[in-house]
Structure formats: structure tokens, C-alpha cells
């Protein structure tokens, strides 16, 4: 198990994809420990004094951490008071603090098939895993079902599409709630019944679900109702 490290970081890149969806990259000023794809961190805008308690913060899945180039990436959408505060105040060259890594939403599948179900910024832990396999063919079959409101809210598409091109064991379906006019996307929300029907011939599989809490609960219950044991269901439930 990795030891948790607290470090100041400088915001080196900030891109607002929409008014409420942002990608940021941080440069840690201390070397951070190795993490497992799927884990998360705590981020605070306040200065951290080691002699005092950790200040108010927010939890975010890690999209990627490259220790060689000292880049830590997260993706967030405005969902409450703290992310609104970040949206209103966070700027490039600003210093923030993080502590990491945390979490057990890691991809230790016990079957030969991994099913990734992602809603909105719930794609983040899966991007972390995909970054780790982009130069190799994994020993598992992977299906990604990814839903977003509209095309410009669908982050990580370049990485996803590049892996599809080189990895025959990786299959993807992308869903948009609003019409795109592009046949590469399914229209509408992610639907458990349709996904389970599509997967019924593959045999045993591990299901990984990440997204808004109500989406996670909907898919978890639907998968249980389909007769799949809870040991094969993994949820990113830190929200």
C-alpha cells in the first residue's frame, strides 16, 4: 500500500471545456508516490500548515500522473460549493495542495472481461487505466460504455479512439444525450438493459461503474437484478 504524501502543486494548465467542465494539470513540488489507476486525491485551495489539520478540500479521481514530467491531471465538473469555488477562482500559476493516493477502485479483474461504465466525469478513473495500457495489449477483453450530455463534454476521446485503433481487445460505445448528427455516437442516456443484453454472450465479467451517485446506484441494482454476484461489481463511490 502506498504511503500518502502531501505536496504543494502549481497549476500549469487549465482548460475550461464548458462553463462547468474543466481539465487542470498540476506540477507537484514534491515527488508523489506511485498510484494505481482508479485511485483519487484530495485537493485544497488553501495553504496547508503541517502543524495543523488538513484544510477543507475536495476529492477527485486522478486522470493521469506522470512522475517523469511531473504532471498530475484531474478533470472536474461543478457539482457543489467547493467545485464552484474552484471554477470561480482557480487560475494558472496558482499554488494548491494535494494529498494522495487513496482508494481501492482499481482494476484487479478476476475474470477475462472488464466492463467499464462511465457517466460524465466518471470517465476519469478509466482514462487513468487506459493511459497505463496505451502502449501494450492487455490480457483482458475491455468494453467501455461512455455517456455524456453533448460531444464537447466527452473528455479523453483522443486517447480512447487511439487505443481502439491498436487494441483489438478494446471495444467502445459512446452515448450523447443531445443530438450530434454523428453516427459514431449512440443517442440517449446509458441504459442498463441494453448494455446487459449486448454483453450476454461474453460469459463472466467484472463491472466497473463510475459517474453520478444516482447513475451508479441504477447500474449496480440493474446488474444485481440480472443475477450477477456483487463480487463482480466495482463502484467508484467516493462522492
Fold blueprint:
Layout: E1 5-18, E2 21-28, E3 40-44, E4 58-61, E5 64-66, E6 71-77, H1 81-89, E7 95-102, E8 113-119, H2 124-133, E9 141-148, H3 157-166, E10 170-176, E11 185-187, H4 192-198, E12 206-210, H5 213-225, E13 233-235
Q: Could you characterize the architecture of this molecule?
A:
The protein has two domains: 5-102, Beta Barrel (Elongation Factor Tu (Ef-tu), domain 3); 113-236, 3-Layer(aba) Sandwich (Rossmann fold). 21% of the residues lie in helices and 34% in strands. The chain has helices at residues 81-89, 124-133, 157-166, 192-198, 213-225; strands at residues 5-18, 21-28, 40-44, 58-61, 64-66, 71-77, 95-102, 113-119, 141-148, 170-176, 185-187, 206-210, 233-235. Strands 4-3-7-1-2-6-5 form a seven-stranded antiparallel sheet. A six-stranded parallel sheet has the order 11-10-9-8-12-13, sandwiched between helices. Strand 9, helix 3 (157-166) and strand 10 (170-176) form a beta-alpha-beta unit. The longest helix has 13 residues, at 213-225. The protein is globular, with a radius of gyration of 18 Å. The relative contact order is 0.16.
Q: Please trace the helix and strand order, writing H or E for each element.
A: EEEEEEHEEHEHEEHEHE
Largest sheet: 7 strands, antiparallel
Q: What does the radius of gyration come to? A: 18 Å
Strand order across the largest sheet: 4-3-7-1-2-6-5
Structural class: alpha/beta
Annotated CATH topology of the largest domain: Rossmann fold
Taking the alpha carbons of the first and last residues, their distance comes to 22 Å
Q: Give the overall shape.
A: globular
Write out the CATH superfamily name of the largest domain. Answer: Nucleotide-binding domain of ferredoxin-NADP reductase (FNR) module
How would you state the average pLDDT, rounded?
A: 94
What is the helix tally?
Answer: 5
Segments where pLDDT lies below 50 for 5+ residues? none
**Helix percentage:** 10-25%
CATH class type of the largest domain: Alpha Beta
- In what range is the share of β-strand residues? 25-35%
CATH architecture of the largest domain: 3-Layer(aba) Sandwich
Instruction: Write down the domain tally.
Output: 2
Quick one: how many beta strands? 13
Amino acid at each position: 500500500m502506498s504511503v500518502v504524501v502531501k505536496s504543494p502543486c502549481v497549476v500549469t494548465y487549465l482548460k475550461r471545456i464548458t462553463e462547468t467542465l474543466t481539465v487542470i494539470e498540476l506540477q507537484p513540488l514534491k515527488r508523489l508516490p506511485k498510484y494505481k489507476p482508479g485511485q483519487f486525491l484530495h485537493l485544497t485551495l488553501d495553504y496547508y500548515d503541517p502543524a495543523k489539520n488538513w484544510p477543507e478540500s475536495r476529492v477527485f479521481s486522478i486522470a493521469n500522473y506522470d512522475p517523469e514530467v511531473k504532471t498530475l491531471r484531474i478533470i472536474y465538473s461543478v457539482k457543489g460549493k467547493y467545485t464552484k469555488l474552484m471554477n470561480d477562482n482557480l487560475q494558472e500559476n496558482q499554488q494548491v495542495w494535494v494529498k494522495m493516493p487513496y482508494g481501492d477502485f482499481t482494476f484487479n479483474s478476476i475474470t477475462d472481461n472488464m466492463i467499464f461504465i462511465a457517466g460524465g466525469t466518471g470517465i476519469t478513473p478509466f482514462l487513468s487505466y487506459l493511459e497505463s495500457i496505451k502502449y501494450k495489449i492487455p490480457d483482458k477483453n475491455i468494453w467501455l460504455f461512455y455517456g455524456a450530455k453533448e460531444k464537447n463534454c466527452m473528455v479523453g476521446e483522443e486517447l480512447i479512439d487511439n487505443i481502439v485503433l491498436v487494441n483489438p481487445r478494446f471495444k467502445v460505445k459512446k452515448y450523447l444525450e443531445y443530438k450530434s448528427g454523428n453516427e459514431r455516437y449512440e443517442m440517449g442516456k446509458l441504459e442498463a438493459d441494453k448494455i446487459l443484453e449486448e454483453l450476454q454472450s461474453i460469459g463472466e465479467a467484472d463491472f466497473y461503474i463510475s459517474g453520478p451517485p444516482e447513475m451508479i446506484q441504477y447500474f449496480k441494482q440493474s446488474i444485481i437484478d440480472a443475477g450477477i454476484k456483487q463480487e463482480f461489481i466495482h463502484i467508484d463511490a467516493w462522492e
